[in-house]
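Exercise 7. Predict the joint structure of the components listed below.
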Amino acid sequence: MAGATPRIVILTGAGVSAESGLGTFRDVGGLWTQYDLNEVATPEGFARNPALVHDFYNARRANCRGAAPNAAHEALARLSAALPGQVTLVTQNVDDLHERGGSRDVIHMHGRLDTALCGSCGHRWPAPEMMTPDDPCPACHAPETRPDVVWFGEMPYRMDAIYRALLRADLFVAIGTSGNVYPAAGFVAEAREAGARTLELNLEPCDRHGAFDETRQGPASVVVPEWVDEVIARLT
Ligand code: OAD
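Solution:
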């Protein structure tokens, strides 16, 4: 059976966590309609006003701690458990709802809210609830604490592992992402070129819509479990 099981790469975005109460970025009322991303999500913004940037991520960390995974997160964990070793889950989200929904080995290409990073020595440690610019790094003691998130202009994490998985994928699925931000927005084209079938699960067709073989529209908490149940019924 394992030999016949397709390798699946799944990319999730803010839409997968929307029904858990975490805002998206570009929808009406989204985070980037309320905040200037140049001020809160760039290294230059952090250098200008680290307290403002910490406040922004402290608030998001608090929102995240108060949120619970939804049926979409749980369904994706069920899929990985049903097809061991066949599913690579890549998320652009900095929340931990995939993990709390039961997924393991999630690739957080844009980093995580629950980790702190030393801008001086690169040490990582569990993020306290509230971070401030004066927090010293526990390893080198430099007061260079920052959220362990990837800002615009920085290189997303684990790109080698992601491209390796895309090259071997039989199926690429994008869930709840608008397809605005590269390199993630380019994954569908990479996967297609490598021969994968491509599927989009989203509330509305995303900007890369034309690159997908199939689109299913609807809230993630509905369309993701439906698709997962279909795949599990077909393959196990
Ligand atoms: P966006 O806010 O750009 O897009 C969210 C997508 O989710 C849209 O296509 C919505 O239609 C869809 N959506 C909303 N509610 C949904 C629901 N209940 N079910 C399914 N889909 C739903 O968020 P991302 O594409 O994740 O990066 O944004 C990508 C990156 O841009 C983020 O990781 C972040 C941001 O700037 C950084 O901060 C580096």
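Discussion. The domain at 23-66+113-149 is CATH 3.30.1600.10 (SIR2/SIRT2 'Small Domain').
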